[in-house]
């Protein structure tokens, strides 16, 4: 069985206009919570919430363990005077960022081509820090039907370069880790493949980095080399 594992953000899709780290947008989300619930909080108190969420962001403070969004926001909002419904606050926060998910133009066609050629397709993605898995699945609903197996950091409980998600995928399909092919765009993707001793294809859609594919159409030739 041939299994290709795809990272999602920067590989198959993107949130338009969003950088790798979303810390600079946290204020927008907390302002949305303040307006929704009519909270009388100062700029300093909002700043404390931003700092708290920032400190839990793995791009700021490295971690491989995944945290539940509800636990993160309960901590970030603990000093607000109102008793807030945390699950609803999580939703309001992310709605306030007005995110727009977009698939890359070559994504669906290449996934279909791989399926026709007999490949099984898995997804392995780290969720944005504090982002609910259910919400993310909704944002990529067009993609979900193309995956034979979906593993997010919420599903595995670990973030890349921890290889726990790849181990779940290998077990799911009954193949050795070494036979998986991971496709991703970041160093942590490369590090995940290295830990698992599996094959890796790096995609750089900007075309600025040597030794990478620049689009998914080039992936098909790479896979032929793997046999």
Molecular structure report:
The chain is an alpha/beta fold. It has two domains: 3-16 and 100-226, Rossmann fold (3-Layer(aba) Sandwich); 23-96. Helix content is 43%, strand content 12%. The protein has eleven helices and seven strands. The chain has helices spanning 26-37, 43-55, 69-76, 86-96, 107-116, 133-139, 141-144, 153-156, 164-173, 187-196, 219-226, and strands spanning 3-6, 13-15, 101-103, 120-125, 149-152, 181-184, 199-202. The strands form two sheets. The chain has a five-stranded parallel sheet, with helices on both faces. A two-stranded antiparallel ribbon has the order 2-3. Strand 6 (181-184), helix 10 (187-196) and strand 7 (199-202) form a beta-alpha-beta unit. The model has no long low-confidence stretch (mean pLDDT 96).
């Amino acid at each position: 069985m041939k299994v290709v594992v795809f990272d999602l953000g920067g590989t198959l899709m993107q949130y338009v206009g969003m950088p790798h780290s979303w810390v600079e947008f946290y204020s927008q989300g907390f302002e949305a919570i303040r307006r929704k619930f009519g909270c009388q909080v100062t700029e300093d108190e909002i700043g404390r919430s931003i700092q708290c969420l920032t400190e839990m962001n793995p791009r700021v403070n490295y971690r491989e363990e995944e945290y539940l969004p509800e636990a993160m926001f309960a901590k970030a909002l603990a000093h607000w005077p109102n008793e807030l419904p945390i699950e609803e606050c999580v939703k309001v926060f992310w709605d306030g960022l007005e995110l727009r998910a977009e698939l890359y133009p070559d994504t669906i066609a290449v996934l279909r081509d791989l399926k026709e050629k007999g490949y099984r397709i898995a997804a392995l993605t780290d969720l944005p820090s504090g982002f609910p898995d259910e919400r993310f699945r909704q944002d990529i609903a067009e993609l979900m039907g193309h995956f034979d197996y979906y593993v997010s950091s919420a599903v595995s409980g670990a973030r890349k370069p921890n290889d726990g998600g790849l181990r779940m995928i290998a077990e799911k399909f009954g193949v050795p880790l070494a036979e998986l092919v991971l496709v991703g765009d970041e160093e942590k993707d490369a590090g995940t493949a290295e830990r698992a001793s599996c094959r890796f294809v790096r995609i750089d859609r900007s075309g600025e980095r040597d030794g990478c594919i620049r689009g998914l159409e080039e992936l098909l030739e790479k896979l032929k080399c793997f046999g």
